[in-house]
Structures are given as C-alpha cells and as structure tokens.
Amino acid sequence: MSEKSKNPGNRKSNQVKDSVIQGNYVALVTPFYDGKVDEKSFKRLIDFVIENGCDGIVPCGTTGEAATLDFDEHIRVIELALEFSAGRVKVMAGTGSNSTHEAIELTKKAEKLGVDSVLLIAPYYIRPTQSGLFEHYKRISSECEVKQVLYNIPSRTAVNIDAETVLKLAHECKNIVGIKEASGNIKQISEIIREAPENFSVISGDDIMTLPIISLGGRGVISSTANIFPSEMTKLVKYALDGDFHQARKIHMFLLEAFNTLFIETNPIPVKTALYLMGIIRSPELRLPLAPISQKNLEVLKNMLKKYGLLSE
After folding, report:
1. In the chain, what are the domain boundaries?
2. pLDDT tens digits for 161-219?
3. Catalytic residue among 12, 151, 239, 272
4. For the domain bounded by 19-242, which CATH number is listed?
5. Is 302 a catalytic residue?
6. What are the helix and strand counts (H, E) for the chain?
C-alpha cells in the first residue's frame, strides 16, 4: 500500500509542493448596479474576503453568475479580480463554457492576464458522453498551459464527470491539477482521491461537504459561504488540513445554520442579498432569469444574519 493510501488525510505534507491548490477559495459574487458590473462593490468585497484571511478568490463561477456575463464582461471581471487582489491571494478564474471553442478562448484570455489557475465547468445543456467530456478537457489542456481545475456539478449541468474520466485526465494532462467536486457522491470523490496523482487536488464544491471531503484527503473548498464568513471558512479548512478535526467540527457546527440558509434559494440569490444587507455591496441586483429573494426567505436570511451578529436588530 502506498503512503498516500496509508494516510489519505495528511495531504498537507512536506511532500506536497507549494504549487498545489489548497485552502479556502471564495466563489465571488459579481455585484451589479443598474445592469452593469459594479466595480466599486467588487473591490470592497475582494478587500473584505482577503482581509479576513482567504487563500484565493474565484471570479466568474456559478456564484458569480458567469452564465449571464457576456464575453467582454467576463474578461473584465477577471481583470478586476487580478487588479483588486494585487497579488495578495491566488486567483482562479472561471473560464468554462458549454462550447469547447469558447472555453478555450476564455482560458487563453485569462492565462494572458496572469491568473494562477482556471476553473472549467462541465459543458452544460449539451449533455456530452464521457468520451466527449474527456476530449473537451483534453483539447483545452493541449491549447492552454495554465493550471486547470475541473468543475463537476451535475445539478447545474445535467452531466456527471465520472471518476474514470477525471482520473484519465489527471494522469494524461499534467496541467489539469484538480477538481471542484459538487456531485455529493462520496464514493466517486473517494475513488478520485485514492487514485489521482499526488499533486492533484480534490476541492469541495459544496460548502457543507468541506469537512467530510477534507477528512478523506481533499484539499479545501471553493466556497459561496466564504463571501459572508471568509475567516470562519478559512479556519475550518486550515484546522481540517492540519488534522485538528475537533476544532474543524466546532466551526462546521457553528456554520451549519449559515450553510442551510445561504442555499435556501438558488445560489447566489441569498448570498448576494446577505452581502447587500451587510453593506458590502450596494445592490442585491441579479440578472434574469434569477429573481430577487422571496419576502418569506428574506426574513429567514435576516434572522440568520442577526444570530451571527452580522446585522443589527
């Protein structure tokens, strides 16, 4: 049995290179005001999460409403994330698409801008076969040198990237260095962690699964909740990576109500509304077909924020 198999929880070891992707990456919302990207609010948000200890930021992901950004807006948001973070944390830009050609173009642009890595969602709506998924990611890998992280979220894309496909990509494409796993399939996640190369990172894509996935050998989270609780999510990940599961469990339990409430409606509706209520962004504006939070759930969200001391009575 390999050392990796004997000790799957000790992924943060001296054998792991500094370049390995790990920690708490914030899946940033994209603030809008009057239909346009609100650059001032975006800067305020980025400063907030960095000052509260996050390890990285992810612009243009699901939480950032990437699917409703046009091409120029998409690139501009990545530019702003790099400018506002100013080298203080890693930047992993969402550059995936249901079109392989467009994913390559976005990835090339992000690579040229100087991002540390890119996040590539599985092609949505198309419902490709596993062969199609493999060829999609292999093509992006061959045309772009930047580090690439797969993004598996079947509830959004209607397709699952099977463990066999992930492992084949991980072993054949050296710049595919991780996966954001939001399938909820612990068996699949375990198989990937067990068989992937040592420098391949499995990152939780579901906030409430962060602790279980790290306990299996995962390396962190790309978190929507971290927009609101950047310090707590960073501490949860750090304790878990250090093997202090007692402290990690305490934070997990502390955040349990937040995990539930911030997904009471489709992400990022509650998270964006919470950031507005906290005064970090100046508008809870979303892009259709996302609609404002219901009045009933708004009250639930406000009550949660008050319990955590993030909103005055």
Report:
1. 19-242
2. 999 999 999 999 999 999 999 999 999 999 999 999 999 999 999 999 999 999 999 99
3. 151
4. 3.20.20.70
5. no
6. 14, 10
